[in-house]
Design brief:
With 327 residues, the protein is α/β, with parallel strands linked by helices. It has two domains: 196 residues, NAD(P)-binding Rossmann-like Domain (Rossmann fold), CATH 3.40.50; 89 residues, UDP-galactose 4-epimerase, domain 1 (Alpha-Beta Complex). The protein is 38% helix and 17% strand. It contains ten helices and 13 strands. The strands form four sheets. A seven-stranded parallel beta sheet has the order 3-2-1-4-5-6-11, with helices on both faces. Strands 7-10 form a two-stranded parallel ribbon. Strand 5, helix 5 and strand 6 form a beta-alpha-beta unit. Bound molecules: nicotinamide-adenine-dinucleotide.
Length: 327
Amino acid sequence: MTSILVTGGAGYIGSHTCKILALHGYTPVVLDNLVHGHEWAVNWGPLVVGDLSSREVLDRVFKVHNPSAVIHLAAFAYVGESVIDPSKYYTNNVICALNLLDAMRRHACEKIVFSSTCAVYGTPECLPLSESHPCGPINPYGRSKRFIEQIMADYGKAYGLRHASLRYFNAAGADPEGQLGEDHDPETHLIPLALKASLPGAMPLTVFGTDWDTPDGTCIRDYIHVVDLAEAHLAALHYLDTHPCCTFNLGNGNGHSVKKIIDTVEKVTGRPVNWETGPRRAGDPSRLVADAFLAKQKLGWTPCYQDITDIIGHAWQWMAKHKRTAT
Ligand SMILES: NC(=O)c1ccc[n+]([C@@H]2O[C@H](COP(=O)([O-])OP(=O)(O)OC[C@H]3O[C@@H](n4cnc5c(N)ncnc54)[C@H](O)[C@@H]3O)[C@@H](O)[C@H]2O)c1
């Protein structure tokens, strides 16, 4: 069976991607240092516990498993932390990615699908955001991702690297079969936080600003089901067989406000969400919505879970099974 190296495959999006790869006949080989990932989430192929900073680990993985391509998800992804400690982000997200690209060169592995982010756009000049919108990331996290997109383009021209950048909007939901779900520590994503805030005795969820220029005063984001993201990785891998490079937005194209998410969580769980208003966060755009037409057109990708109730329902199904308390 064809092996695909999945860095960060013990994490949230990576583990769902491994399941989809296995369903399509691939062997996902996970390389993860388990700093934020979970051993229990690796079920569909070998787990190599190691860090992308190690040339020795990378050489061993390529030698032993001979992957035909790489899906690179391993990174740190907390925007606020990246502002406080940029060195941590540039070291892990940029230097480690460079190590990976150079290991691919040494082992003649030509194809990579890279987890990028809508944070590469910075503050939107117009909406919905298409791939042609100028990139102007406003924090070290977004810049770290944009650097890798640019480095991959240079490696493509110079060394023939075939590369796909997938710019995710807000990943959400969980495996509909209940095997996998979101388990970040600390958790910063709205849907799991709102679900937790509906549990008995939960601390209040802070809503960062209720006076934005939006219909209900709260920020609007585009939530994309994690299984739809996973499917897009597979489609991008296939696309690279016949195209040298590509960049795609991955979102549903629908914006939902924080209040809409809270209302939907209350409907799904049947309980009130404990929330309070906090100050706006610096750098938060009021609206972020994807134009994902290009991914649909070029990859033949259509998100299966467009209804926010389904997305939250899957996240709740997983949380209710695994995390019954608010702590
Ligand atoms: N979750 C989202 O909404 C979202 C949105 C846009 C982009 N992304 C990007 O998608 C990717 C995956 O996100 P996620 O939410 O699944 O995060 P996650 O933290 O759950 O997964 C990342 C995994 O990478 C591993 N890792 C980190 N640095 C490593 C290193 N140096 N060596 C080996 N393993 C390492 C962690 O242990 C973790 O298992 C990240 O690159 C993130 O920037 C996520």
